[in-house]
Amino acid sequence: MEFPVRCFTCGSVVAQFYEQYRDGVKDKKPDVVLDELGINRYCCRRMFISHVDMMTNLTKYPRV
Q1: Is pLDDT above 70 for 1?
Q2: Is the pTM of this model over 0.85?
Q3: Among 18, 6, 26, which residue's Cα sits nearest to residue 52?
Q4: CATH code, 1-64
């Protein structure tokens, strides 16, 4: 759904980098963008690479 605030494994705050990551991936590879943002832990990198934004798909349907 929405991007998590903290990494599931180590608990570090990663949500503050999501918009910069999303904008940077349009022009560069994901690994280069994560290096530029200073996200070095594998567990935190996983949070960005594996995230799928489903909110746009879910807002099409009305709540019953």
Answers
A1: no
A2: no
A3: 18
A4: 1.10.10.60
